[in-house]
Amino acid sequence: MKRFIADNGSVIVLLALCAYYSFVTLGEQHPNTPAAGREVAETILDASPPAPAVVIVSRDTAQDRTFTDAVRQAVESGGGTVLAVVNGAPTDARMALEQVGGAFKQVDAIATNDAASEWGPLQPDRLQQASQKFPGLIGVKVFKPRSYIWPSFLSRENLVNVMNQNAVIAIIAIGMTMVIITAGIDLSVGSLLALCGVTTAVAVQQIAGGANAGTIGLLGACLIGTGVCTLCGVFNGVMVTWFRVPAFVVTLAMMMVARGLALIVAVQYQSALLGGGTEGTPEAVKIEAISFSWLGNGSTGGIPNPILLMLGLYVAAHVVMNRTSFGRYIYAVGGNPEAARLSGVPVFGVLILVYAICGAMAGLAGIVDASRFEGGRPNAGEMYELQVIAAVVVGGTSLAGGEGRIFGTLVGAMIIAVIQNGLNMAGVASYEQKVVFGGLILAAVLLDRFKRQ
Q1: 216 forms bridges with which residues in the sheet?
Q2: Both ends of the chain: CA-CA distance in Å?
Q3: How far apart are CA 354 and CA 360, in angstroms?
Q4: Closest to 99 (Cα-Cα) out of 81, 84, 120
Q5: Which of 61, 152, 235, 322 is paired with 402 by a 20 to 30 Å CA distance?
Q6: Distance (Å, rounded) from C-alpha 75 to C-alpha 78?
Q7: Domain spanning 157-452 has what CATH number?
């Protein structure tokens, strides 16, 4: 039992957190999905006269529009008629109802969601008053999706959002896991993320063709940004191995250098846009190529692309760490570098490659960030290194080296994501959350120490 808890403690913690947040967020849910829209349409078709005339009302949001589209398609497929579709404010709903009712068109039903059903023009007394002036509104009924009891935390939208918003942290954590297993550390990953984002954005605008950039040009720009971060990782590895500088010192210096370079590139680019005569500002470098946002904001099969990328990288990293000689070399170097050297393991090469992979993962995360925000942000990734280290340590990787699992890191990243999501839902300020994450890192380190004893 002790061994089972030691090996699966992070999974137990994640399940316990999910159970806790599910309990505290249990409440009435009001669906606003395409499925809910089809349900409303079916209710109207069953409860109204044949070929009912329907007005659809909702807010002007992307989710509400998918709801109204589903209602319209289902009503028309069932033989009904959609007189008007309103995606806007209460005044828009009132004007649409008055226009339809004033044209002597009988309105049989109003399809809406829970949020819009609270609007004044859709209240029974207001509809009764309006029907006296507009005969077409006589006897009109309001239909909305049925509510149900379910935890807000376990809603599909929230779970997908939790994973999507923390995919960047999880991607960087892959490289950090390899580094920490070798008993090293990399504090520069947040700054490398920003440097990659800015470098890629400038490459897209200046080399790939800007708004007219094609797929090949965008891939080339991404390779340039990732390559710069990979070279920074190689530099870290060389300093740690050949010059025997402590990893903490080397990566701390790289953190400041990379952040400075990201700001310099952004300032010089903005200055060049102004003709070079005035000093630029450290603003985000906007990427005009519309297709570039596909990676950060697009989805495949209903799943956001950052999540798919994250899962694919974890599968590949798991195979590398558990099915290849390189993965075994990483564990050997972290367990006892001298014994590994005497056994024929190329210790220096393994360490350099591990730091290069960590830099590449930070660069790839920077591309996702730039794609999500449609620009390279020189201030992106601040304090990310602490969240990444927390995810790796909470996932069971020992700071002493030689022990850790890629799957554990994924679980650790999800623990950090769930805690952050729960704190946000509870209204905890971002600066107060830093106290929680700091305590979490300390608790994970103490747990690792007790486990070793």
Answers
A1: none
A2: 17
A3: 10
A4: 84
A5: 235
A6: 5
A7: 1.10.3470
The alpha-helical segments, DSSP class H, found in 209-284 are 215-241, 247-273
- Both tokens of 232, joined, read 């920074």
CA distance 254 to 260: 10
Q: Is the dihedral of CA 399, 400, 405, 411 positive or negative?
A: negative
- Token pair belonging to 387: 């969240």
State both tokens at 441: 């890192």
How many Å apart are CA 295 and CA 310, to the nearest integer?
11
Single-letter amino acid code for the residue at 154: L
Lowest-confidence pick of 126-130, 348-352, 448-452: 448-452
In residues, how long is the chain? Answer: 453
* DSSP 8-state assignment for residue 207: I
Q: Which sign, positive or negative, has the C-alpha torsion 40, 152, 388, 180?
A: negative
Instruction: Output the pLDDT for position 277.
Output: 66
Helices (H), ranges, 124-212: 124-133, 156-165, 167-181, 189-203
Number of neighbours of residue 227 by Cβ within 10 angstroms: 15
Q: How is the chain split among helix, strand and coil, in percent rounded to 5?
A: 70, 10, 25
Exposure string over 143-165, b if 16+ CB within 10 A, otherwise e: bbbeeeeebbbeeeebeeebbbb
Q: Is 223 exposed, middle or buried (0-12, 13-18, 19+ CB in 10 A)?
A: middle
For the chain, domain boundaries = 34-146, 157-452
Tens-place pLDDT, residues 282-331: 889 999 999 999 999 999 998 999 999 999 999 999 999 999 999 999 99
List of residues 6+ apart from 236 with CB closer than 8 A:
186, 188, 247, 250, 251, 254, 355, 358, 359
| Exposure string over 316-334, b if 16+ CB within 10 A, otherwise e | ebbebbeeeeebebbbbbb
Q: What is the CATH number of domain 34-146?
A: 3.40.50.2300
Phi, psi of 28 (to 5 degrees): -75, 130
Distance CA 414, CA 176 (A): 16
Q: Are 57 and 86 in contact (CB under 8 A)?
A: yes
State residue 87 phi and psi, 5-degree precision. Answer: -120, 95
SS (H, E, C) 414-452: HHHHHHHHHHHHCCCCHHHHHHHHHHHHHHHHHHHHHHH
How far apart (Å, rounded) are the C-alpha atoms in residues 248 and 351? 14
The phi and psi torsions of 300 (rounded to 5 degrees) equal -130, 120
3 state DSSP class of 227: helix
Residue pLDDT, tens place only, 39-57: 999 999 998 788 899 999 9
